Amino acid sequence: MTGREAAAQRRALVCVAPTVLALGALTVYPGIWVLWLSLQHRIPIFDVSRFAGLENYAFLAVDSRFWSAAHTTAIFTLGSVALEVTLGVTAALAIHTVRRGRRLALSLLLLAWAMPAVVAAKLFEWLYHPAAGLINVALGRYSINWLGDPAAALPAVILADVWRTMPFVAILCYARLLAIPADVYEAAQVDGAGRLATLTRITLPLLGRILLLAALFRTLDALRAFDIMFVLTGGGPAGTTETLTVYAYRALFQTLQLGFGSALSVVVFLLVMAVAWAYLKILRTGAVAA
Amino acid sequence: MSVALRRAAWPLVLTVWLLALGGCGAGQESGPVTLVFKYARILGNADPLPELLRAFEAAHPGVRVKGEALPWASDDQHQFYVINLEGRSPGFDVMMLDCIWVSEFARAGWLLDLTSHLEPDELAPNFPSAVASATYGGRVWALPWNFNVGLLYYRADLLAKYGLRPPETYEELVEQVRRIRAGERDPALDGYVWQGKQYEGLVVNVLEAFWANGARLLADDGTVFPEPARAADALRFLRGLIVTGVSPAWTTAADEELSRRAFGDGHAIFLRNWPYAMDLFDGQGSAVRGKVAFAPLPGRARGEPGAGSTGGAHLGVSRRSRYPELALALARHLTSEKAQRAIALGAALSPTRQALYRDPDMVRHHPAMPRLQTLALAGRPRPVTPYYLLLSATVQPEFSAALVGVKPPERAIADAGARLAYFLRAVR
To answer: Which of A16, A33, A205, B376 is most buried (most C-beta within 10 Å)?
Structure first.
């Protein structure tokens, strides 16, 4: 190593140190603390603080509410991400194809995306209102008990989430579409590719990587989803819309069971990490073309 | 960041620091005493609180009272208190407390023990159940401020039309709903609406059904669900109301306001709700003005008479208040008969002091007051325990599961019991 290289390395270390320190203080330290808390029975307001070993985790393994929340989280994630990606790509293609109204469509999409989740949830609370809600008024005799029926509540929550976050996928895809050079399409035309072939052989493969990224972001968000169901249903009916984070919130902030709540948080954390790792693995192996 | 920019940034950072330090110093030492009062905004014709706070300031020269609003929802208020009190920040002196929190906060050591500061019998003019929920471990931790009790509202005009008296049992209520709906032939007219959404209100409604059926959530010795079969039967009855259409399907998503609006628009015969709704039903422009009356909640045939769940708010003094005497004086001032009268007249909150229910001036404004007193006296409190929130949050999804029919009531009770056993073993 030459002197210059060593100096450059030192400078790099100095530059990266604040980030590492900040991450350590704000992420690693609290993370380890949560892990430690999860091994205890700890409820500070009742002066409960004693080591519990893996008791909290053992209870989770047989806790039907935990498994129901895990199930809800899985369905919510799969359902909302699948719909968001499908609708997002469709919307992006539509906007890319049309000549007029493009700016209007983009502004409307951004409006939905820019709306805070709590506001969107309140909006849907009125839309789903059993008697006065727009949706049930439109359905007339076939009105649905949206937020009170265990079979309808989770789809209703997913729909609200899709409405709010589909634009994120759409805008990402649209940006990628703009970056595809026109000569690629011209070449396809020369080769005699029809519309369908162009879509399946050129456009979608070229969208692949950005779609995977969008799906990664959305999946991680959906796994930690909280605000939309918290406002719309509070987790009900029968806990059918209670995700793991809502359960963790109830334990941590409502009943102040810091130990048990931390065990729940650790599970959510591991879940998110595993999914993120799987996505990154796919991205790295280059299974999807750029 | 460029060098020039970095140089420019330093004075800015320094200024911010100095401002922050100055800000910290300001409120601490000199100047007049400031008391902070945390409360939820009171709705009604006119918010009487600002005037009450000014009156206190006039009587205590050199003291300023700052009223600070709490978040709207009870759960958010609880969370606000817990974070601030556990974090040991003495940001307030007097605090409005939902009656179900008093034992918890007292147990946690956040409230000033008021017992030795009170005159003998100072709380006697209040409803006994209000005093009971302000008491924990034989000591008094808060002063009763306003009172709530579950009521059965009914459409007096419809019942009179069919020659019916308000039902004394739920079985009678079901029969009356059948008769009236058969006669009215109005598909938009629902029978009995109540609160079945998965939240605290559901626990209140289920408890009332429990009590009517001779079941409890918590026994005095700490046993959870001491009468499991009767509790399951009560849940099955509530589920039956929805299955048979006596209560609309959306009951499982209904909170106080949703059900109050349906009844207030004239779309229901019976409603379970708190006293605040009466003023709204009798208000100008109400579709049911002059057509509504209230009765005690029904009991069950061959069961116990019905009892409404009691609720309401108390005022407590933070143990970290720097001016405990003044804070207590403020709490006394706000819970005095004069203040409770002003609040009852200006807002739709019922007093805890019984004399006001017979007061001629009050009765002229609210003719139903004497009757409300009778029902309030018959009301039952939710379990008074420091673990109430743990209890409630744990049973909510199970009760909801039984109501929407995804779990047999017996299993819902058993599952809730098992989870509570694990949690309570940790705290006891």
So the answer is: B376
For A48, nearest residue in chain B (alpha carbons): B427
Q: Which of A64, A253, A259 sits opposite B415 (nearest CB)?
A: A64
pTM reported for the whole predicted model:
0.86
Nearest Cβ partner of B401 from A45, A238, A259?
A238
Q: How far is CA A44 from the centre of its chain?
A: 32
Domain ranges of chain B: 31-148+311-381, 151-307+387-427
Q: Using CB atoms, pick whichever of A64, A145, A234 lies closest to residue B199.
A: A234
- Radius of gyration of the CA atoms of chain A, in A: 24
Domain assignment present for A158 = yes
CA-only gyration radius of chain B, Å: 24
Best B80, B98, B198, B256 residue to mutate vs chain A (most A CBs within 10 Å): B198
Alpha carbon distance, N-terminus to C-terminus of chain A: 36
Tens-place pLDDT, residues B342-351: 999 887 789 9
Do the bridges between strand B94-98 and strand B143-149 make them parallel or antiparallel, or are there none, so unpaired? unpaired
Residues on chain A touching B196 (C-beta within 8 angstroms): 148
**Architecture of the domain spanning B31-148+311-381:** 3-Layer(aba) Sandwich (3.40)
- The pLDDT tens digits for B331-381 are 999 999 999 999 998 877 899 999 999 999 999 988 889 999 999 999 999
Q: How far is B190 from chain A (nearest CA, A)?
A: 12
